[in-house]
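Here is the promised in-class demo. Please do not try to memorize the tokens; focus on the logic of going from shape to residues.
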């Protein structure tokens, strides 16, 4: 049996000369190279951060209660949502939204969202985070 470090990628079914050439361009030559070709960034969506723990330029999941949701008009129409978890408030901004998203963001609803934290005019914010409503009785 050959070692993974010396077995060429062409030993894999479906990997011919053309595919091997493309993989070689990104530095994959052996089976070991493929096994250790890890993602550029790992997103841990299982840990829910408090708003106080959020730092700019990090991707985090936060959960809190919608305090307000308003449509603001400027250069573009945007939905601005204030989310609070007891440790602080974060602003969620949506430029492309519909009536369904607007109705989900009613004050009192609990929302879990994931996105990149940025520094905004009035504190930290997320632009277009992925979100879903959370049932208070359901387990996390």
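The designed amino acids, position by position:
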């Amino acid at each position: 049996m050959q070692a993974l470090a010396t077995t060429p990628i062409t030993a894999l079914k479906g990997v011919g000369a053309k595919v091997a050439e493309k993989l070689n361009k990104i530095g994959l030559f052996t089976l070991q190279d493929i096994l250790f070709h890890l993602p550029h960034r790992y997103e841990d969506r299982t840990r829910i951060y408090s708003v106080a723990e959020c730092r700019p330029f990090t991707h985090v999941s936060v959960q809190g209660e919608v305090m307000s949701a308003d449509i603001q008009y400027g250069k573009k129409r945007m939905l601005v949502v204030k989310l609070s978890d007891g440790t602080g408030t974060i602003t969620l901004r949506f430029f492309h939204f519909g009536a369904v998203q607007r109705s989900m963001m009613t004050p009192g609803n609990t929302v879990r969202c994931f996105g990149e934290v940025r520094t905004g005019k009035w504190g930290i914010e997320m632009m277009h985070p992925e979100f879903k409503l959370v049932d208070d009785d359901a387990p996390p």
